[in-house]
Design brief:
Blueprint (H helix, E strand, L loop, with lengths): L36 E5 L4 E6 L5 E4 L5 E6 L4 E6 L5 E10 L4 E4 L2 E5 L3 E8 L4 E8 L6 E7 L7 H4 L2 H6 L4 E5 L15 H19 L3 E9 L2 H11 L4 E5 L6 H15 L4 H19 L6 H11 L13 H6 L2 H11 L10 H5 L5 E6 L8 H12 L4 E6 L8 E4 L5 E5 L4 H11 L11 E2 L1
Parallel strand pairs: 11-12, 11-13, 13-14, 14-15, 15-16
Antiparallel strand pairs: 1-2, 1-8, 2-3, 3-4, 4-5, 5-6, 6-7, 7-8, 9-10, 10-12, 16-19, 17-18
């Protein structure tokens, strides 16, 4: 299952369970590099192929369709739908890998000659690893810097948006967050420090692009939704895109997520109050840096643990505290959440930010429910701030649509049609952007 890889609480998205921008799979070095690329097909369509789960590849279409490709021997791969194990009928034949020639179903394709420039640059006191990907040619293009969430995987290795946006005529700079991939430094979730790193990445992207650099801005997913506006306020850019990020604090995020848990399960005000007690108890543990408050949480587990609603409590970090022994939480969680500003209020930054912004949400986001954020952004728009919002009603965190498995768990199937196109248009057009995309409610 793609979402919430509980194998590591490292994916707590600033307490978020993070989905990286367009690539939740983990690459393996034994997958030949020549498979990876953006392919123009003979019928005029585009197809992205990149690393997938161990031993697999992943294909993506600009409309959000995707599947996992498993080797069948020789140069043949077969696909399963999204992150399910259900065959979808698609087949990939790698005809000449070194020359970038493939056949997907019955259509041939050739890999585009995207320009990639790897670099090492100085962040805030550490050396960071980055990569600029440009469309072919010498034309001036807009540049977007991808700001990561709380994941610890390498953005340079995993972010498919590098190729997907570059194939649409946009330059893309991805970099490994400090303490991840091939970047130096200690992993942190200190937003100010990460914003400084993002600004340095923006400078490096502009330097590498040289005369080809046009307008430049940020795209931040999940935790990056707190970091990108802060970076843009410190040093203005031309645009900011926030994907499945929030305009509330991490503590408020968890409370709202638990309230959404209860609403989706059909419980009323009395249960909402009880679930709120659990949210307050876990917040107190976080605020103490995991040194106190466990007795209060244990008492609530004893009091409410057998009631029907209790098993539906997920929240964000609350689910981890409910399922982790106290001794383990005391020992491991402080370092895993080091630097997280639990009560960070993004509104002062957003209230003083005049950079054009596009905020994109999933209407079924369990990890970062967008409802209070939408209310706050609407107030900022009424005050004259250049903010556009869009909601894909059936998308979960990471902007993934889903189906339910036999155990009642969500399994991702695709990204919404229009999500990529929406970002492409905003990056290229800025204030002139007005399209909502199929299936999206735009404001």
């Amino acid at each position: 299952m793609r979402s919430r890889l509980l194998a590591t609480i490292l994916a707590l998205s600033a307490f978020h369970a993070v989905a990286t921008p367009g690539s939740p799979d983990v690459p393996r070095s034994h997958v030949p590099a020549c498979h990876t690329g953006s392919y123009r097909m003979a019928d005029g369509s585009m197809l992205d192929i990149g690393p997938g789960a161990p031993g697999a590849l992943r294909w993506r279409r600009p409309d959000g369709r995707t599947g996992a490709l498993m080797p069948q021997g020789g140069d043949l791969w077969v696909s399963t739908l999204g992150w399910t194990d259900r065959p979808d009928g698609h087949r990939l034949a790698v005809m000449e890998c070194d020359r970038g020639k493939i056949r997907f179903d019955d259509v041939e394709g050739h890999r585009q000659s995207l320009v990639q420039r790897d670099t090492r640059f100085e962040g805030s006191g550490v050396m960071l690893n980055g990569r600029l990907t440009l469309p072919p040619g010498e034309a001036t293009v807009p540049i977007v810097v991808l700001i990561h969430g709380a994941e610890r995987t390498s953005a340079v290795d995993t972010y498919s948006l590098q190729r997907e946006l570059a194939s649409q005529g946009i330059g893309v700079f991805a970099y490994d967050k400090r303490g991840t991939g091939r970047s130096e430094g200690r992993y942190t979730q200190n937003y100010l420090l990460l914003a400084t790193d993002a600004i340095r990445a923006m400078h490096e992207a502009r330097r590498l692009a040289g005369k080809r650099a046009g307008r430049i801005g940020y795209q931040g997913g999940s935790q990056g939704g707190w970091v990108a506006p802060l970076a843009a306020k410190i040093e203005p850019v031309d645009f900011v895109i926030v994907s499945f990020g929030l305009a509330v604090s991490p503590i408020e995020e968890d409370r709202e997520a638990i309230a959404f848990d209860m609403t989706r399960a059909g419980f009323g005000a009395d249960v909402q109050r009880k679930a709120g007690e659990v949210a307050e108890a876990t917040a107190a543990i976080i605020e103490s840096n995991f040194t106190e408050g466990f007795d209060r949480l244990d008492a609530l587990k004893t009091k409410y643990g057998k009631e029907p609603w209790f098993r539906f409590v997920r929240g964000n970090f609350t689910s981890h505290l409910l399922s982790t022994p106290e001794a383990v939480a005391r020992r491991d969680f402080p370092s895993l959440l080091e630097g997280v500003p639990a009560h960070y209020d993004p509104i002062p930054v957003l209230s003083n930010l005049d950079v054009p912004q596009l905020w994109i949400f999933g209407g079924q986001d369990r990890d970062a429910p967008p409802f209070e954020t939408l209310r706050r952004l609407e107030a900022l728009k009424r005050a004259g701030h250049p903010i556009t919002t869009a909601v894909f009603p059936q998308a979960d965190h990471g902007m993934y649509e889903f189906e339910m498995d036999k155990e009642g768990e969500r399994v991702s199937t695709r990204q919404p049609n229009g999500y990529l196109d929406m970002m492409v248009n905003f990056i290229k057009q800025g204030n002139g952007w007005s399209r909502s995309g199929p299936g999206a409610a735009s404001r």
